[in-house]
Design goal:
elongated, 251 residues, Ferritin-like domain-containing protein, Ferritin-like, Ferritin-like_SF, 9 helices
């Protein structure tokens, strides 16, 4: 039997005869420390690609055959982690902004005071530090995927623009503590949705330890959202509405 025939028969046997468990083991062993799709999808993709390569191997030159084999291995690695990296860069912008928002709230409580059921300087400092910790975890996630934290991505650029608006709102002249809390509430709503998405992406694409770490962050962020929501609710009647002259209604 020629070398080409050996290759074709070997690929067919690999595709058709190996068990699901053996293929799954091959999948994870061949691309250790890479981003993988769910095991079932990787196993099915491997079987399909090996079968196709086997069917075409007798008419392909050696160079083309090697390229097809390389393509099969790329399938094992799953889709490009570009989506994951893009969302991490988005989260990086918002976590950086969140720490800045809590610092702004801290300044306002020192300058303007607070109200019953409102934020205390001590608690705001704790939240500020937690957001800095989350910022560090996002950076670690990017480095795990081989991306520098300074990387610019489409979602990261959009998030930067959105975050500038949040910062401008909290720093606006005449902005009250309640104004700043409402801005922070918007930020926390976005944060919770963003971390929930990262948990899903880590579950599909990332190492298991990233998924667990992100779940823990989401739990903390859920607490932030509940706390800021309560502060806004308690301050709704504590913050007097600005006085304005009534405008006549014209018909």
């Amino acid at each position: 039997m020629s070398w080409d025939e050996d290759v074709k028969q070997g690929l067919k046997r690999t595709a058709m005869l190996l068990s699901e468990q053996e293929l799954e083991h091959l999948t994870h062993g061949a691309v250790r420390n890479t981003v993988l799709p769910p095991a079932e999808g990787a196993v099915q993709s491997l079987r399909i690609h090996l079968s196709r390569i086997a069917e075409a191997s007798d008419v392909m030159p050696t160079t083309a055959f090697r390229e097809r084999m390389s393509g099969a291995l790329q399938v094992l690695k799953g889709g490009s982690p570009a989506l994951f990296i893009d969302r991490l860069c988005e989260r990086l912008a918002f976590e950086r902004t969140s720490s800045r928002l809590y610092a702004g709230l801290l300044i306002k409580t020192h300058a303007l005071g607070t109200y019953d059921g409102g934020p205390t300087p001590e608690r705001l400092l704790e939240l500020h530090n937690q957001e800095l910790e989350h910022l560090g975890q996002v950076r670690d996630g990017l480095l795990r995927l081989g991306a520098p934290p300074s990387l610019r991505t489409p979602s990261g650029d959009v998030a930067d623009s959105q975050c500038r608006g949040l910062i401008q709102a909290i720093d606006a002249p005449g902005a009250t503590l309640m104004d700043a809390l409402r801005v922070t509430l918007v930020s926390e709503l976005i944060n919770n949705a963003g971390w929930a998405m990262l948990v899903d992406l880590a579950s599909e694409l990332g190492p298991p330890e990233l998924e667990q770490a992100f779940r823990e962050v989401l739990l903390v962020e859920s607490g932030h959202l509940a706390e800021v929501t309560l502060w806004v609710a308690n301050g709704t009647y504590a913050d007097p509405a600005p006085e304005s002259e009534p405008h006549p209604v014209s018909f």
